């Protein structure tokens, strides 16, 4: 099973068009406190396995997951795909790419 990736600019375009999607940040709380993408929900990877099943109930909804650089979000996206989620993507490059390619006001760390 492979992880479907989406770029930061492609994610921004979906949000700008008003596409219905859930933006999930799988970084840890301290990272989320530093910076985040507006409208994102936090489900840290450290508790993702339990929390995702509770918070994400529609296996067909569009979900984009991001982290700092794209590694953790790929793991989270793969996990959801294995649970039968059909429209989940990992944002390539994470919030680092978001800051570099979409919104330089977002803190880089």
Question: How would you describe this structure to a colleague?
Answer:
There is one protein chain. It contains 5 helices and 5 strands, in the order βαβαβαβαβα. The protein is of the alpha/beta class. A 5-stranded parallel beta sheet has the order 1-5-4-2-3. The relative contact order is 0.25. The model has no long low-confidence stretch (mean pLDDT 97).
Report a brief summary of the structure:
The protein is α/β, with parallel strands linked by helices and 109 residues long. It has helices spanning 8-16, 29-34, 48-55, 71-82, 94-101; strands spanning 5-6, 22-25, 41-42, 63-66, 88-91.
SSE arrangement:
Elements: E1 5-6, H1 8-16, E2 22-25, H2 29-34, E3 41-42, H3 48-55, E4 63-66, H4 71-82, E5 88-91, H5 94-101
Parallel strand pairs: 1-5, 2-3, 2-4, 4-5
Order of helices and strands: EHEHEHEHEH
Quaternary structure annotation: single chain
Strand order of the largest sheet: 1-5-4-2-3
Averaged pLDDT: 97
Beta-sheet strand percentage?
5-15%
Largest sheet: 5 strands, parallel
SS-based class: alpha/beta
Alpha carbon gap, first and last residue: 31 Å
List low-confidence stretches.
Answer: none
Contiguous helical run count: 5
Global shape: globular
Q: How much helical structure, as a percent, in the residues?
A: 25-40%
The Cα radius of gyration reads 13 Å
Could you tell me the number of beta strands?
5
